[in-house]
Amino acid sequence: MNTDKTLFRSMSEFESRLLRAITGRSKIRLPATDLITAAVLAPLFEKDGAPHMLLTKRSDHVEHHRGEISFPGGKLDPTDRDEEHCALRETSEEVGIETGDVRVLGELDDFYTVATRFRVSPFVGIIPYPYEFKTNEREIAGLLAVPLEVFFDPNRRSEDTWIFRGEEIQVVSYKWNGHNIWGATARIIKHMVELVDH
Asked: Domain range for residue 138?
């Protein structure tokens, strides 16, 4: 694990490392058979001189993943041009980040949600900050601005094996400020960390 704190000195340094990691590689695309296609955005921004990631706490009124920490995003709509359009549209609807204010850096590998059977396409983008977020209160109970260095600290990550429907699954979790960031969101974050830290 890279412990070089210069990684977190500025957003531009982190962006350069991430771009080097994702440019020229072929993302892993999961087959969509029997899965619901969805897309999410991992919004990154600079706060107090350090890179941060915006995450949402889902409300208790949504159909799936109630109360969990997640990226803004959702199901692919028939009107969406592609997964990237879906991620940006959902981000605008959920937290009020206008599409034109997001500079998309690229895609990460597809992931699936175990219990709800979504195939999730994650995108990483830079947003301005401070920003006047406007959350959809029916879907979003709150926002988290998490320093990126949290996800590069192995002491904050745990990995366990669960048995779900007779199959072993690996569960990744990050602990931060009393929050448990886990599931597909944590696996996507771990994937990004491993790409940058390679």
From this structure: 5-149
Identify whether 170 is part of a domain. Answer: no
Give the SS3 label for residue 27. coil
Q: What is the mean pLDDT of each run of 10 residues along the chain (198 residues)?
A: 55 93 92 91 95 94 73 96 98 98 98 89 98 96 96 93 76 94 95 92
For residue 142, which of 66, 69, 43, 56 has the smallest C-alpha distance?
A: 56
The domain that contains 55 carries what CATH number?
A: 3.90.79.10
Q: For strand 118-126 and strand 36-47, is the pairing parallel, antiparallel, or unpaired?
A: parallel
Supply the DSSP string of 112-176, one letter for each residue: E-TTT-EEEEEEEEE--SS------TTTEEEEEEEEGGGGG-GGGEEEEEEEETTEEEEEEEEEE
Structural domains in the chain (count): 1
Q: Is 89 part of any domain?
A: yes
Which structure tokens are listed for 103?
Answer: 């500079």
Read off φ and ψ for residue 182, nearest 5 degrees: -145, -170
pLDDT number for residue 7: 54
Q: What is the length of the chain?
A: 198
